[in-house]
Write a structure and sequence with these properties.
By secondary structure, the chain is of the alpha+beta class. The chain has a single domain, classed as Hotdog Thioesterase (Thiol Ester Dehydrase, Chain A, Roll). The chain is built from 4 helices and 8 strands, in the order E-E-H-H-H-H-E-E-E-E-E-E. Strands 1, 2, 3, 4, 5, 6, 7 and 8 form an 8-stranded antiparallel β-sheet that branches. It is elongated and about 55 Å long. The mean pLDDT is 94.
Amino acid sequence: METIGLGLHFEDLPVGRTFRTVGRTITEPDIVNFVGATGMTEVLFTDMEYVAQHSDIKGGRVAPGSLVFSMAEGLVLVATLQHTGVAFLGMELNILGPVVAGDTIHVECEVVEARLTSKRGRGLVRTRNRIVNQRGETVIEYTPLRMMKCRNGN
């Protein structure tokens, strides 16, 4: 029986390939739970009176950049890395704009590097991932380098 939802292999990710994930709305409970679980109790995330009076960010409870990145990685993982991702090796990350409760994000990915490793059956793939909100604004850009399985261990 065929299993669906499996990830892409190294051979499926040539330089220049682009794709987009489905979207995900970030909710106030997402933010509150993440802040509580991580201990990120900065007033920007926990005190709506402070935000209303002192922050330049308006429109709702502010989501930590690490939450937005984590949710974006979840969108990418479920779409491309099931059973084929071997390791996350590093990245550069730049936060370009705020995300607040109620914003919907998706990830636009472009393969910018792809090469085989010295170990048979593995390849390295770097993508440029843009986290984009419902207004078409890029809020975070990051460039993960991942080790991926090759098809049939070649």
